[in-house]
Amino acid sequence: MGLLRCFEAEDLLEYQLWDGSADASYNAYLITPPRIYAEEIRPTTGRPGALWGGADPNRWGPSSISFFAVTSQVRWPSWGAGRWKLDGRFGRKLERLSGATAFGQMGVTTGLLSVEPAGAVWEFAGHPFIDANGAVLMDVDTMTVTSQLIRPEDFAGHAAGAMVDFAVDRAADRVWIRWLTNNVGQVSVYRLSTRELLHELWAPNQTNGVVLTHDGFVYVVDVLDWLCVYDYEGRLHGAMRHPRLVSHPGGVCYGWDAYYRRLLRLEGTPVAVDGASTLRVEAFYPVPQAALLSPPVPRQVPRAGRRVYVLSRAVGEGAEPIVGRAAQLGGDVAGAGSSDHQGDVVVAVTPAASGPLEVEVTIP
Amino acid sequence: MLSRVAGPIPISAYDVREAFVARAASALWVEGLGLVLIADGGAENAFALYALQLDGRAIRIGKRLSWGGIGWAHDGLGGGAAEVPCLASGNNTWFRARLPTTAPLEAPHEGTAARASFAVLPDRVIWFGNDEVRWAPHDGAVPDQPEAAMPGNTVGTGSVMPARLSASESLWWLANLESGRLFLYDAVAKVDVPERRTSLGAAFRAAAYSRKHDLFFVVRDDGLHVYANEPAAASVSVPVFSSAPAVGAARELSAQVLGDLGEPCVGRVVDFEVTAGSVERAAVETDADGWARTSYRAPLAPVAGATATARLVE
Q1: What ipTM, to 2 d.p.?
Q2: Do the chains contact at A292 and B63, CB–CB below 8 Å?
Q3: Using CA atoms, how far apart are residues A57 and B264, in angstroms rounded to an integer?
Q4: Pairing mode, strands B57-60 and B12-13
Q5: Whole-model pTM?
Q6: Which among B101, B215, B218 is the top mutation candidate for probing chain A, defined by the most A β-carbons within 10 Å of its own β-carbon?
Q7: Rounded CA gap, A303 and B102, in Å?
Q8: Between chains, do A202 and B57 touch, taking CB under 8 Å as contact?
Q9: Which of A239, A307, B168, B289 is deepest in the core (most CB within 10 A)?
Q10: In what order do the strands lie in the sheet with A217-222?
């Protein structure tokens, strides 16, 4: 259940095959039979990578979806970075860019990744190439690291290496940071230019990403798969849950598709027997689906000829209310109702006679 | 005792990897979320927040922290006349919070010992335990002390639940989890409303009240129980005449329907039968005091051994 799914990519995120060349000094398990691929995604800080989408005309349609991730590879220096690009309409493979086949190109190792609304990707880590710790802007078209840096120590009271989650929007002059010293689920929001603390956002549990939309909203994701929707002023607009059914080692990452206005999602999945990627991008509208419709409970004691109301609740995966869904009565009574703004379906029934009364509520 | 309309509904965690047991007395009915409870122990979910649904499934909504209690604030702050959920931590602090995010809406108030269930009023914090309501100032500067006695309890923590709140009213349900006794407490006058004394039937683990639905949600070890806010009828009194019947004269004939603790039962239908004479209406609904009243007219000639009976319909 969870959110309303609206897209599933036709193509998987393919790995590069091992060409058998001599340079295979690292990660020998990748090409130990029956495995045949020269790489696999190496999730960073519990997430597969960075995911985003937007206008990008191509032969299949008007937009594309990009996924950027750190990889383990058999070649020196054992790690790399890749960008997979799919078309946004069907999810067909468009291109695959590589970086970091040698030090000095894409210096991505184990850092946090975050995507700006405009599609720029930032990474937070220690960067030996620029001799600093912080969030660095990456050029994912040329697969190089730029010199733009956001240092934790520039924020009053914080030290290098203190960020555990972050997001940046240069156009809106904002930066969202969950510090190591923050409370559980707490995200601090600053003005980027002045490092002035503006307000705090909260998720129910430890955060697992801060996703920015193109139109001024912020999805704070947590480790129990809650998505809390805030605006740039810190107002909460809703909370919903889209849980994983299995705890995959690769974790899960969300992104925003500015063209189709949908949440992108990639969940880590085990590789196939031969090492092939089984990763597939999905997209969801931020509309929770009913996970539970509770059996009706009478609000008054039912008696023959007495009009009483029965209560049933339609909720999503996080007990969030499912609003405005039509409901049908069945069993010994007939009628219809709908869920209100709190997910409550309240309908009147009048038992005709004493004795057992069977009432069913369904959401067609 | 109130009328049970559902239950026991077995309780289990929605996530099959978790086991859920409710922490004693700590519960809020939060419209739009359900019965919000603090978990009791467990390696994976100790003191995490859950939202229990009416099918018995407990959905984990909040983090595992050492929450000590959960309550409501109704002091005109943080949302005007509406009550606001509060969380109390194990280190003697409480604060208004947004659920399910648990985002604090204010700096924590320190110094008041964490209670499993409490209410924040403009001038004090109250809670219910054993046979009394106790209070302490917001900052805990004065040791807590008794405020009012609630008879009929000996021991047991209590739940505090908003019943009717406005700018001038501050009525709270108080339930003792050992005895199951339920009181309607006027926090302005600092007395309970004697005619509303009733019971949730038996001991329980946690309880909460929904003003929207006028229902009590009660968690026991055997599951979730739901009670309508209407006492279950336990007795119908012997019908009485307003004055001694006289040949050919009309008299009021009445009978009272009461719960097992003497609570008046409203809206119950009483069927009057007489062996001589007639009643104007045989089936009559009880009023706010539990009385059903009809008009009786005696026969024109005396009848020996005539009887009048009152019977509860359903």
Answers
A1: 0.90
A2: no
A3: 74
A4: parallel
A5: 0.85
A6: B101
A7: 41
A8: no
A9: A239
A10: A207-212, A217-222, A226-231, A236-241
